[in-house]
């Protein structure tokens, strides 16, 4: 979700991930369509570079004189962390030439190159123009990253890369069976973000139930502050708190059924209860006026200025909004409020997963080089560098020793600790990008939160979208194993 990195819009870190990507820190923009053209198998292709000799220092057999091309999404995490890792690659392979570039136009820049068969060796496939992961996998456009995962880690030759990773990272990159097609570099905590200072000024704590949430929003309203805002132009940010709430209320199986495109999955009572709860925010006037017309940066800026108390987001928000968040803001994140004591899972149930998806194209000239660049990025030093510079965790299970954690990062770590095993990971945003963003997000949730659909109407509409996707034979379908 570059930030989702899996998130949407220009400049998204993200962010989006859609993201959103991303990090403790995760996609097609509205109207862009499924982007299936990016997976065209046309074009004559490029000549593969001859592999190098495998050694202890070069376990992937990188051709030490071949060019390695790396295209990064230029979003909320910036470029510096990647440029620093490139310098290590250049030091390790002094005869190699690294061609590094960063862009927000991932899909429009790289789709023609996939079509022609000459894609780069490593891509950070994130942001509003993220290429559709499901399509890329379904059309065999990606290289299996298992050789990287089974290679010795950069720091310890006795430990495989896969053994240095946070839980769930390998599984996220799988679609069917054992191959791993995507590597999510950042580790993102999704949830409800707020200023602890603002909450303290209201004399209250973070609300655990929805009645308490409404009470807090009413307190905020009386002080001239809206309860909530969100990225109105990119309402697929709403699921960052709404989906884990659905999981908390109804159990993981509800989210799995939704991911699996099962008939009537959206008709579950937990979905209905959570939609109605969010709709109350609109009905009671607790959403910042004008929110439906705001993009992610505008909504985050309004929130940082104290115009709204809560915002659904991913952990990239701390870095992406660093220039507008006051020094005494005391940024914090919480798992979503539930409905009441009847919820299936306890308070603290949160969505946390890999964000910032990196891929190595199947037709890359120097796939070994692309994987080696990722191996370098998964060293402790590179992981620490990322965390220190962008205020997000990486997929590397560690890398925080000696680093002073920023407020948001510290809060995210605490949220993960509170969640324990109650971490959910909805897969719609990487399995069915267009469905998640354009249909569920924009046409469904966005319309409901703007007051143009009732919860019942939104559920019916979204279930229709899911049923269409389930019957669409032009797209590959995935299921929880």
Automatic annotation (TrEMBL):
Database matches in Gene3D superfamilies: Periplasmic binding protein-like II
UniProt keyword annotations, A-Z: Signal, Transport
Name of this protein: Carbohydrate ABC transporter, N-acetylglucosamine/diacetylchitobiose-binding protein
Subcellular location: Cell envelope
Record family assignment: Belongs to the bacterial solute-binding protein 1 family.
Chief location: other
Transport keyword on record: yes
Chain segments annotated as transmembrane: none
GO cellular-component term (any): cell envelope
Region (Disordered): 40-60
Pfam families: SBP_bac_1
């Amino acid at each position: 979700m570059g930030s989702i990195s899996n998130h949407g819009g220009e400049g998204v870190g993200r962010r989006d991930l859609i993201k959103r990507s991303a990090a403790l820190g995760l996609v097609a923009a509205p109207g862009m369509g499924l982007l299936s053209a990016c997976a065209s198998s046309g074009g004559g292709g490029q000549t593969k570079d001859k592999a190098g000799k495998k050694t202890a220092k070069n376990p992937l057999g990188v051709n030490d004189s071949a060019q390695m091309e790396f295209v990064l999404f230029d979003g909320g995490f910036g470029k510096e962390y990647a440029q620093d890792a490139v310098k290590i690659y250049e030091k390790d392979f002094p005869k190699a030439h690294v061609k590094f570039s960063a862009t927000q136009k991932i899909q429009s820049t790289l789709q023609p190159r996939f079509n022609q068969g000459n894609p780069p060796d490593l891509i950070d496939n994130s942001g509003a123009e993220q290429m559709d992961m499901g399509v890329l996998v379904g059309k065999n456009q990606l290289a299996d990253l298992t050789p990287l995962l089974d290679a010795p880690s950069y720091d310890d030759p006795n430990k495989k890369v896969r053994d240095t990773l946070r839980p769930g990272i390998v599984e996220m990159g799988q679609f069917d069976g054992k191959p791993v097609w995507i590597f999510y570099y950042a580790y993102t905590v999704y949830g409800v973000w707020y200023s602890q200072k603002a909450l303290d000024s209201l004399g209250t704590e973070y609300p655990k139930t929805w009645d308490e949430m409404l009470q807090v929003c009413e307190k905020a309203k009386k002080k001239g502050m809206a309860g909530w805002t969100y990225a109105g132009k990119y309402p697929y940010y709403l699921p960052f708190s709404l989906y884990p709430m659905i999981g908390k209320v109804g159990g993981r199986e509800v989210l799995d059924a939704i991911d699996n495109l099962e008939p009537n999955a959206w008709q579950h009572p937990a979905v209905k209860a959570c939609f109605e709860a969010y709709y109350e925010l609109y009905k009671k006037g607790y959403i910042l006026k004008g929110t439906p017309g705001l993009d992610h940066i505008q909504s985050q800026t309004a929130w940082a200025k104290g115009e709204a108390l809560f915002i659904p987001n991913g952990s990239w928000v701390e870095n992406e909004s660093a220039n507008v968040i006051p020094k005494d803001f005391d940024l914090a994140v919480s798992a979503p409020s539930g409905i009441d004591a009847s919820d299936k899972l306890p308070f603290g149930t949160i969505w946390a997963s890999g964000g910032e998806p990196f891929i190595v194209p199947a037709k890359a000239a120097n796939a070994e080089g692309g994987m080696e660049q990722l191996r370098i990025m998964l060293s402790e030093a590179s992981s620490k560098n990322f965390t220190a510079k962008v205020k997000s965790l990486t997929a590397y299970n560690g890398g925080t020793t000696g680093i002073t954690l920023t407020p948001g990062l510290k809060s995210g770590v605490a949220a993960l600790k509170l969640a324990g095993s109650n971490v959910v990971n909805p897969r719609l945003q990487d399995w069915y990008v267009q469905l998640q963003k354009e249909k569920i997000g924009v046409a469904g949730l966005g319309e409901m939160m703007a007051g143009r659909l009732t919860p019942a109407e939104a559920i019916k509409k979204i279930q229709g979208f899911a049923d269409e996707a389930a019957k669409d034979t032009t797209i590959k379908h995935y299921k929880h194993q």
